[in-house]
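Technical annex, item 7. During the second reporting period the consortium partners agreed on a shared format for inverse folding records so that results from different sites could be compared directly. Each record opens with the tokenized structure and is followed by the designed sequence. A conforming record, contributed by the partner at site C, is shown below for reference.
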């Protein structure tokens, strides 16, 4: 992404609301989560060919004093722009989707809206006033407007704005607004950083695919990155000592603080603890495989008993029944043989 511009607030600005309302503090900083940007980019890729830009709703959280807004989520809102003369926004769809998102994420609130174009026009002011209105809008807090340029072949440019009304007539107040830029920051955690690095690896491949690496490969890559960083730091320190490069007090203080965080442990102790940890992991893996094998064997034995048990019982019963028939038949034969003897 392109480098964000720097902004300087000489005084803490106040947002303005409808007539008769109290002014609220405009956020001095906007924090953007990567998943919100990916949702916006996905919406832009799926737009119709005749659409120049798409819009949507931004969800997130605010700090207690309202000085910081964090954008965590976003969803698309259908809209139509006709030759810069008319704009139609599916407000009912936006209200229903907002209600569903707030049920799924009760901690999030409506913070503003986005557009995939850097242009600010009267339609932008109209939509901005809708999102910042009372009732279904962000009032008494100002709505944040996020612009994301998605022109092919150009760097993605991000900007965040808040608005204030301008001195116009009552008839033009709904489609008039003055957009004021506010600084922003794209913040992500370690897990998100790993995912972004994996996705960014696809840009160097012709098929634009990235294979999921194993844990061992990920560990190897992380160790290699640490080694590269240490080599860069070592080269910088050597160049400063050789007076080939001007020293930096801020960078030297940062390196000193970073080295102070390292524990003072003997290398032999670290190697011994690492080997003990590896042995513990191998023992746990062996026990887990042993338990898995025992459970599988028990299941197979139980299945074999259930399958073979009824068949043996049926055979025994059939044998007993046939033996009884022979005995009964023998009894009848004996009784039959005895009757002629009594007649003689």
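Designed sequence (site C submission):
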């Amino acid at each position: 992404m392109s480098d964000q511009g720097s902004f300087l607030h000489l005084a803490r600005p106040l947002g303005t609301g409808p007539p008769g309302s109290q002014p609220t503090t405009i956020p001095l900083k906007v924090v953007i989560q990567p998943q919100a940007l990916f949702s916006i980019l996905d919406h832009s890729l799926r737009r119709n060919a005749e659409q120049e830009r798409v819009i949507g709703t931004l969800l997130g959280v605010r700090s207690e004093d309202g000085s910081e807004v964090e954008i965590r989520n976003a969803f698309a809102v259908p809209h139509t722009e006709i030759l810069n003369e008319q704009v139609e926004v599916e407000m009912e769809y936006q209200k229903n989707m907002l209600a569903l998102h707030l049920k799924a994420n009760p901690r999030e609130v409506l913070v503003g809206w986005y557009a995939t174009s850097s242009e600010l026009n009267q339609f932008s002011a109209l939509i901005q006033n809708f999102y910042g209105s009372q009732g279904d809008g962000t009032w008494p807090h100002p709505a944040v407007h996020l612009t994301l340029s998605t022109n092919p072949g150009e760097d993605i440019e991000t900007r965040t704005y808040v608005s204030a009304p301008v001195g116009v007539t009552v008839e033009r107040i709904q489609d008039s607004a003055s957009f004021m830029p506010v600084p922003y920051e794209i913040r992500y955690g370690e897990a998100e950083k790993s995912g972004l690095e994996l996705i960014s690896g696809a840009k160097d491949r012709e098929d634009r695919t990235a294979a999921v690496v194993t844990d061992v490969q990920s560990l190897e890559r992380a160790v290699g990155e640490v080694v590269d960083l240490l080599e860069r730091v070592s080269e910088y320190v050597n160049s400063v000592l050789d007076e080939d490069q001007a020293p930096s007090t801020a960078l030297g203080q940062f390196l000193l603080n970073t080295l102070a965080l390292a524990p003072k442990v003997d290398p032999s102790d670290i190697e011994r603890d690492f080997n003990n940890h590896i042995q513990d992991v191998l023992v746990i893996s062996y026990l887990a495989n042993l338990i898995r094998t025992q459970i599988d064997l028990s299941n197979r034995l139980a299945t074999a008993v259930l399958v073979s048990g009824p068949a043996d019982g049926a055979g025994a019963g059939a044998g007993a029944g046939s033996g009884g028939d022979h005995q009964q038949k023998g009894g009848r034969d004996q009784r039959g043989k005895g009757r002629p003897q009594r007649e003689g």
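The mean pLDDT is 78. The radius of gyration is 38 Å. All partners now use this format for quarterly exchanges.
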